[in-house]
Design brief:
Helix content: 40-55%
Strand content: under 5%
Order of helices and strands: HHHHHHHHEHHEEH
Low-confidence stretches: 18-23, 248-266
Strand order of the largest sheet: 1-2-3
Mean pLDDT: 76
Structural class: mainly alpha
Number of strands: 3
Largest sheet: 3 strands, parallel
Number of domains: 2
Oligomer: single chain
Distance between the termini: 55 Å
Radius of gyration: 24 Å
């Protein structure tokens, strides 16, 4: 015990004389870190998120006992890798760290995000369904759409995701292998999902209405398709926002429904 105390005292004396250890300091050779810790630089060009959003993400991901330096560095490495869509080797050079460390950080942060995804990506409560349905009714311009529901709501917020199939798999097959379909997760009774033309018309085990196939056979079908396309455009915009931020990172993503975009290349 005496040796341990003496060693600690020696380390404290060295720290006072030479300053804190290098791992407790910002590596000034790394412009990305210097820019982040200056407190005012625009982070969006390199990390695709603004400073407030990154701070909020760090607060959601890491517990209060997580090492303060590590939580910032891990999050920045992961966001830079995701935003740039580049190799571990390039990210390692950008942050002046070993490639193996970058690989470990990316996997660790990704697993942490997946473990917390249900805090953000979830189906609305029964009380919230009325608001979503009213939103789609307004977008569709027809009262016929007042009971339509989607896994992307009327504001473009993702409510459910299903990931893992390659781009060559048809949308309907992805749907029929998703928990949404196999476990009858959504929608509740009295609500209908609207999907694009890649989906079948279903009443069981979930209710789903696609547009009529072109060419339509009557003015009624044409009018239905016109109203149907307006709320469906919300999911297109949602994927557009996602792709514009993380455009280079190839992550096949299927999100139901208005649309299962299994060919998404972020």
């Amino acid at each position: 015990m005496r040796r341990i105390r003496m060693r600690r005292m020696a380390l404290v004396a060295l720290a006072r004389h030479y300053g804190p250890p290098l791992y407790c300091q910002v590596n000034k050779k790394v412009p990305l870190l210097t820019m982040y810790f200056d407190g005012h630089s625009d982070l969006r060009p390199d990390f695709r998120l603004n400073r407030d959003t990154i701070s909020g993400l760090i607060g959601q991901l890491w517990a209060t006992d997580h090492h303060d330096w590590a939580k910032h560095l891990d999050t920045l490495v992961f966001l830079f890798w995701l935003a740039s869509g580049t190799s571990y080797r390039v990210v390692a050079r950008a942050f002046d760290m070993p490639k193996a460390t970058v690989c470990d950080v990316v996997h660790r942060v990704a697993e942490t995000i997946l473990a917390l995804r249900r805090r953000v990506i979830n189906f609305p409560s029964l009380d919230g369904l009325a608001e979503v349905s009213a939103g789609f009714q307004k977008l569709g311009g027809s009262a016929a759409f007042r009971k339509f529901q989607a896994v992307c709501d009327h504001r473009g917020r993702f409510l459910d995701i299903f990931v893992g199939y390659p781009g060559s798999v048809h949308d309907s097959r992805v749907l029929k292998n998703s928990p949404l379909y196999t476990q009858h997760l959504y929608p509740p009774n009295g609500f209908i999902i609207i999907g694009d033309g890649g989906y079948p018309c279903l009443s069981q085990p979930i209710t789903l209405l696609p547009p009529y196939r072109e060419p339509v056979r009557s003015p009624v079908e044409a009018r239905y398709n016109r109203h149907h396309s307006r709320p469906r455009a919300v999911i297109e915009r949602a994927f557009g926002v996602l792709k514009s931020r993380f455009f280079s990172c190839f992550i096949p993503l299927s999100c139901f429904v208005l649309k299962s975009n299994s060919k998404l290349n972020m």
